[in-house]
C-alpha cells in the first residue's frame, strides 16, 4: 500500500505505509497503554534500535509525550495486529540535535511498527486498572470538573452485553451516590473535558462492589461497562467568591450535609461538612459578624463530622474532629461528649471518663454524661478484675515454675544419708579396724574411741 501523509498539518512530516492490515475497526485512544514491536533505521538502512532483537515488546502511554511526535501520531492510527512503516521527518523525530551517537542531527527515520495490543487509560487512584477509559470523542478546552462542580452527563451502563441503564443525569460531582451514580464514574469524570464521550470499564471496587445490583441482574464482584458523555459542567471557583458568598456556600453545604445525615447517607454528609472547612479555611480577612458566623460554621462542621464518624464506627477520625472543634471552643459540651464516646469505642474508658467528667463541669444536668461515666466505671472495674486474675495466674505459674526448678536442683544434689557417706565402711574407721557390735547394729554411728584406748575418757 502506498504511503499516505498522516501529519496533522499535512506537511509530509509523518508518512505511513501499511505492510499488514490490522483486525477490526478499533484503534487506541489517547492515554491508552500500548504494546508494540519496532525496528528503527536511518534512510540508508542502518539499524539503530530494535525491540525484536531484544525480544522485549515496548510499552508506552499514547499521546502523553513519552515518545517522539511521529509515534504519538502514527501509532494512534493503528489497529490490533497491524504492521506499518512510518517515515518521520526530523521535526517529528529527534530534530536538529539528533540522538548521538546512533542518530545524527536532522535525521529522517524509518520505523517498522507492529501493534500488539493496548489497554485503556488507567484512571483508578491506585493505578491498578480498576477504572479504564477508552475515548470515543475527545473533549474540548483543557478544564476538567472537580469535586463540587455541577455536571450534566449521559450514562449508558452495560453488563454481559446487556444495557441496564440509559439516562441523562445532573448532579454535583462527589454526590453521585445520591442519584445512583457509581463511584468509578465520578472518579473518571474528574479527567473528562466538556463534550468528551468515552467507554469506561469499571471493576467491582468502584462499581457495585461485593453486593451487586440484583434489580439489574448484576452479581457481586462484577466488572461493568459504561458509555459516558460529559455534556457540560459548571465549575465554582471558591477563591473568586466574596466573603458573604463563601458564607452562603458553606451554609448550603451544611444544609445538604444535614439532609444526607437524616437520610443515613453518612459518607455524603461527611463530604458536605468537609467542604464547609475547605471553603472557609482561608478566612483571615473575615471581620465582625461574618467572622463570628464563619467560626460557628467551621465549629459546627467539625462537630457534625465527629457525629458522622461515630455512626460509621470510624472512631479515630471522630476523635480527631472533636480535637479540631475543641481548638475553637475548648469547653464545648458536644465535642467533649463525642470525644468521650470515641475513646470509649476505642476501649479507653480511663481516658473517656475524663471527657464525660468535663461535660458535667460544663453542664451538671447532662444525664447522658452521668450514664456514660457509669459505663466507664464498670468497664474499668472489669478491666482491673481481668488484669488481677491475669496477674494472679501469672504469679501462680511463676511460683510453680520456681518450685519445680528448686526440686530439680535438690534431686541433682547427692544424698548424704546414702552410700559411703551414710553407711560407714571399714576404710573410714581409724586404722581400718572392723566394726564393733554396736556399730553393726547402728551403721550410721562411728565409735571414734573404739580402739580400746582411754583417750576420750575425760572428755
Automatic annotation (TrEMBL):
Cell compartment(s), UniProt: Cytoplasm, Cytoskeleton; Cytoplasm, Cytosol; Mitochondrion; Nucleus
Q: Which SUPFAM superfamilies match?
A: FKBP-like (SSF54534), TPR-like (SSF48452)
Q: Supply the name of the protein.
A: peptidylprolyl isomerase
What is the species of this protein?
Apis mellifera (Honeybee)
Q: Where are the TPR repeats?
A: 299-332, 333-366
Q: Per its UniProt record, what Gene3D superfamilies does this chain match? A: 3.10.50.40, Tetratricopeptide repeat domain (1.25.40.10)
Reaction(s) catalysed (UniProt annotation): [protein]-peptidylproline (omega=180) = [protein]-peptidylproline (omega=0)
Q: Which GO terms describe its molecular function?
A: peptidyl-prolyl cis-trans isomerase activity
Q: What is the lineage of its organism?
A: Eukaryota, Metazoa, Ecdysozoa, Arthropoda, Hexapoda
Q: What is its EC number?
A: 5.2.1.8
Amino acid at each position: 500500500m502506498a504511503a499516505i501523509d498522516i501529519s496533522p498539518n499535512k506537511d509530509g512530516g509523518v508518512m505511513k505505509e501499511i505492510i499488514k492490515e490490522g483486525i477490526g475497526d478499533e484503534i487506541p485512544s489517547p492515554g491508552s497503554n500500548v504494546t508494540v514491536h519496532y525496528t528503527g533505521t536511518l534512510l540508508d538502512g542502518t539499524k539503530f534500535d530494535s525491540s525484536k532483537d531484544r525480544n522485549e515488546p515496548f510499552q508506552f502511554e499514547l499521546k502523553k509525550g513519552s515518545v517522539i511526535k511521529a509515534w504519538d501520531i502514527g501509532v494512534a492510527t493503528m489497529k490490533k495486529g497491524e504492521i506499518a512503516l512510518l517515515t518521520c521527518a526530523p521535526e517529528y523525530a529527534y530534530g536538529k540535535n539528533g540522538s548521538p551517537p546512533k542518530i545524527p542531527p536532522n535525521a529522517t527515520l524509518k520505523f517498522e511498527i507492529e501493534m500488539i495490543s493496548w489497554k485503556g487509560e488507567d484512571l483508578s487512584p491506585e493505578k491498578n486498572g480498576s477504572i479504564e477509559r477508552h475515548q470515543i470523542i475527545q473533549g474540548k478546552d483543557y478544564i476538567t470538573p472537580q469535586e463540587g462542580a455541577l455536571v450534566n452527563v449521559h450514562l449508558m451502563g452495560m453488563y454481559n452485553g446487556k444495557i441496564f441503564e440509559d439516562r441523562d443525569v445532573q448532579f454535583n460531582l462527589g454526590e453521585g451516590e445520591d442519584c445512583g451514580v457509581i463511584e468509578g464514574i465520578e472518579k473518571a469524570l474528574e479527567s473528562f473535558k466538556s463534550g468528551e464521550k468515552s467507554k469506561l470499564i469499571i471493576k467491582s471496587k468502584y462499581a457495585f462492589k461485593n453486593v451487586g445490583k440484583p434489580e439489574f441482574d448484576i452479581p457481586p464482584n462484577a466488572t461493568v461497562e459504561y458509555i459516558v458523555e460529559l455534556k457540560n459542567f459548571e465549575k465554582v471557583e471558591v477563591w473568586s467568591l466574596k466573603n458573604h458568598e463563601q458564607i452562603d456556600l458553606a451554609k448550603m453545604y451544611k444544609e445538604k450535609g444535614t439532609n444526607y445525615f437524616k437520610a443515613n447517607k453518612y459518607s455524603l454528609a461527611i463530604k458536605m461538612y468537609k467542604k464547609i472547612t475547605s471553603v472557609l479555611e482561608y478566612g483571615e480577612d473575615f471581620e465582625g459578624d461574618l467572622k463570628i458566623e464563619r467560626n460557628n460554621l467551621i465549629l459546627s462542621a467539625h462537630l457534625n463530622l465527629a457525629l458522622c464518624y461515630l455512626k460509621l464506627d470510624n472512631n479515630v477520625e471522630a476523635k480527631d474532629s472533636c480535637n479540631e472543634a475543641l481548638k475553637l471552643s475548648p469547653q464545648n459540651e458536644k465535642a467533649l461528649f463525642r470525644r468521650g464516646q470515641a475513646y470509649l469505642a476505642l476501649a479507653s474508658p480511663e481516658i473517656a471518663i475524663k471527657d464525660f467528667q468535663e461535660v458535667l463541669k460544663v453542664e451538671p444536668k447532662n444525664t447522658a454524661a452521668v450514664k456514660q461515666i457509669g459505663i466507664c466505671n464498670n468497664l474499668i472495674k472489669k478491666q482491673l478484675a481481668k488484669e488481677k486474675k491475669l496477674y494472679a495466674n501469672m504469679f501462680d505459674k511463676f511460683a510453680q515454675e520456681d518450685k519445680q526448678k528448686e526440686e530439680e536442683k535438690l534431686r541433682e544434689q547427692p544424698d548424704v544419708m546414702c552410700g559411703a557417706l551414710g553407711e560407714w565402711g571399714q576404710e573410714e574407721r581409724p586404722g581400718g579396724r572392723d566394726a564393733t557390735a554396736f556399730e553393726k547394729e547402728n551403721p550410721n554411728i562411728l565409735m571414734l574411741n573404739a580402739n580400746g584406748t582411754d583417750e576420750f575418757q575425760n572428755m
